[in-house]
Write a structure and sequence with these properties.
The complex is a heterodimer of chains A (477) and B (79).
Chain A (H helix, E strand, L loop, with lengths): L3 H9 L4 E5 L2 E4 H17 L7 E4 L5 H12 L3 E4 L6 H11 L3 E4 L12 E3 L18 E7 L7 E6 H14 L7 E4 L8 H10 L3 E4 L8 H10 L4 E4 L1 H10 L12 E4 L6 H10 L4 E6 L8 E4 L15 E2 L4 E4 L5 E5 L6 E4 L2 E3 L8 E9 L5 E6 L4 E3 L2 E3 L1 H9 L4 E11 L3 E10 L5 H11 L8 E4 L13 H10 L1
Parallel strand pairs in A: 1-10, 3-4, 3-5, 5-6, 9-10, 9-11, 11-12, 12-13, 25-26
Antiparallel strand pairs in A: 1-2, 7-8, 8-18, 13-14, 14-15, 16-17, 17-20, 18-19, 20-21, 22-23, 24-25
Chain B lengths: L1 H12 L21 H14 L11 H4 L2 H10 L4
Helix pairs in contact in B: 1-2
Classes of the chains: A alpha/beta (477), B mainly alpha (79).
Chain lengths: 477, 79
């Protein structure tokens, strides 16, 4: 299952390096000892199997300790995006019905009513053993919700285990591998680093945020640590291909690069592929609800700058189906999440026939490869984050002085899409006051990139907003 | 040049309550300029000012403020 392979590594090679973060490193044995102590502390604070624990930590050694400690206590972790404004974080922990929150040092001032644990200050201890059932929830990853509030995607031990086994086999991960890690734990990409990589006894090297801003130094860092693989977002790989000095910094040890989370513009991918002739490249695809449901080993011969690449074939024994009327991708199978978590409960997201309808429009080509054609609904993908315009609209509408508003996506060459806001304002509210209110409540990637104040929003004869006209106005602005 | 940079940064990359109050020497990285922002800024600057910004010069100190950016771009080789 999910934890067993990791625990086996801790037993078989306790001295092997598990985590490397700047000057710090931690062996498998020490990681397990810390995670056990934290699990013990959770249990002493009343956390029971099935409870939820919010993780208030940036990715790194302490966050990994907190994740494995939470799972060893039989609980489920809820990783927070610390860049989110406090009201959004407070909503998430209330909605998740957490039993405790873990971080470093003292609790953030906005936290009230929940126990706080400092992961770096847990006395040594051994937790009571817990046994997770396959359906026990392991993680709840909050994302933007189409109902106007963040929603949690609930992943079970079985779903994460199915993904990590499939991925570890595909990439032939072993204890010799040194894998770079740059994804925050609230993104599903991180489940590869945590469970596939550490389940096979490899070493995980955390890429510092500062390094992602200095592409030439990032390339040197990858070379210096003889990194053998990396699962990250296309934008970061595109940055390295564009300005990473790869011509002078070959990466001969890099066995594989995997990308997911947004569409990789093919010209940038061709550029990357040329710099890394012996690296196998993979396109992973799937909304968080499916973790990864499709994958395509990049066929270099077929890269055409004017064509987007396929999302490929089903993963891990998943079944795919295309709805005949809408072209929507339906998925069922092993890596699927258990449902949405909201108001302390699990809500199924399967349709009447037992499939999850993803909202993605796809087709199949003559090679049997799936192709992605965009979203059916209103969801936007902004710098790799899912953004539901409805969540922004709900926040804007709640500001006193807003009469009506609509959010539409505008295309952006590097961020994919950006939200733009069209708004009817009362005289009592200035645009700058509105912006200030949104800064306090929405994360950066949800901030509108354009504001457009109108006397009246364009509407269809039936009174509904005319999004088609809104979008074309925005393109012209 | 500085005004073009300022306009691009505050309309496309950073969300600031009052961009007009942001000083030429103020810290853009503290204001939220991240790695994707830096990439987009470099793409914009290379095209807009017809320069090549060398890979090895992409350093926090060169993008930290509007003043630093202007100086860096002015010294960069023409494309």
């Amino acid at each position: 299952m999910l934890l067993e392979p990791f625990l086996r590594q801790c037993q078989q090679q306790p001295k092997a390096l598990a985590l490397i973060e700047a000057e710090l490193s931690l062996s498998y044995g020490d990681l397990l000892e810390r995670a056990n102590s934290f699990a013990h502390a959770l249990q002493n604070n009343g956390v029971m199997p099935g409870h939820r624990v919010a993780i208030h930590l940036e990715r790194g050694i302490d966050a990994v300790t907190a994740v494995f400690g939470t799972l060893l206590a039989g609980a489920c972790y809820v990783p927070l995006d610390l860049k989110n404004p406090h009201p959004r974080l407070a909503f998430i922990i209330n909605d998740a019905h957490i039993a405790a929150m873990v971080g470093r040092g003292s609790p953030p001032p906005w936290l009230t009513g929940y126990p706080w644990l400092d992961v770096t200050a847990c006395p040594s201890g051994q937790p009571k053993t817990t046994q997770a059932e396959p359906g026990t929830l392991a993680a709840i990853l909050y994302t933007s919700g189409s109902t106007g509030k963040p929603k949690g995607v609930a992943l079970s031990h079985a779903a994460l285990a199915a993904f990590k086994e499939w991925a570890a086999d595909l990439l032939e991960l072993d204890a010799e591998d040194r894998i770079a890690s740059s994804t925050p734990f609230f993104f599903d990409l991180s489940t590869f680093d945590l469970y596939a990589v550490l389940g096979r006894g490899a070493s995980l090297y955390f890429v510092s945020t500062a390094l992602t801003m200095v592409p030439a130094r990032l390339s040197s860092w990858l070379k210096e640590h003889a990194i053998t693989g990396w699962y990250t977002v296309p934008s970061l790989l595109a940055f390295i291909a564009y300005k990473g000095n790869l011509g002078q910094t070959p990466l001969p040890t890099m066995r594989f690069l995997i990308f997911a989370g947004e569409v990789f513009p093919t010209p940038a991918l061709i550029n990357l592929a040329e710099f890394l002739p012996s690296t196998t490249l993979y396109n992973f695809f799937g909304p968080t609800e499916t973790n990864v449901c499709c994958y395509w080993p990049v066929d270099r011969e077929r890269l055409n700058p004017n064509q987007s690449i396929p999302i490929g074939f089903p993963t891990a024994g998943n079944e795919l189906h295309i709805d005949g009327t809408t072209g929507e991708l339906w998925v069922r199978g092993t890596t699927l999440a258990s449902g949405y978590w909201g108001e302390g409960q699990l809500h199924s997201f399967l349709n009447e026939t037992g499939w999850h309808a993803t909202g993605d429009r796809v087709s199949v080509n003559e090679n049997g490869e799936y192709l992605f054609h965009g979203r059916l609904g209103r969801m936007l993908k902004c710098s790799g984050y899912r953004v539901e315009p409805a969540e922004i609209e709900a926040t804007v509408s709640a500001v006193s002085g807003v009469n009506a508003c609509a959010v539409v996506g505008v295309d952006d060459p590097t961020a994919g899409q950006r939200p733009a806001l069209v708004v009817e304002l009362a005289e009592t509210l200035s645009l700058s006051d509105l912006r200030q209110a949104l800064l306090r409540q929405l994360p950066t990637y949800m901030q509108p990139c354009r504001y457009w104040v109108v006397d009246a929003l364009p509407r269809l004869p039936n009174g509904k907003l005319d999004y088609q006209r809104l979008r074309s106005f925005m393109e012209l602005q | 040049m500085k005004e073009k940079l300022r306009h691009f940064i505050f309309s496309e990359l950073i969300f600031h309550e009052a961009p007009e109050t942001f000083g030429d020497a103020d810290d853009l990285l503290e204001a939220g300029l991240d790695s994707m922002g830096i990439m987009r800024l470099i793409m914009f600057a290379e095209k807009e000012f017809s320069v090549t910004l060398p890979d090895t010069e992409i350093e926090p100190n060169n993008v930290r403020s509007l003043n630093a950016l202007e100086q860096w771009i002015q010294l960069a080789p023409r494309a």
